[in-house]
Amino acid sequence: MEPKKLSSFNLLSDIHTEMIQLPKSFRESVCQECGWSEATFYRKTKTKKAFSNAEKDKILAVGDSLLKTLLAHSNKYRPR
Length: 80
Hints:
Low-confidence stretches: none
């Protein structure tokens, strides 16, 4: 399958689509990494209790990874 030319993509639509998927991807990845259910994820977003160091590390790693992925995705539109 031949890749589409970048000019055939709508930059705004493509980046917007990637960005609106971030919350779901973040939630799913954190749940997987921490062994939480979706209900536990939302309950923990509302609590004032501290997270363990392992949970903090995993949450930050997931966030960093998703942001790097988004940056790599948007870099395909930048001139070389």
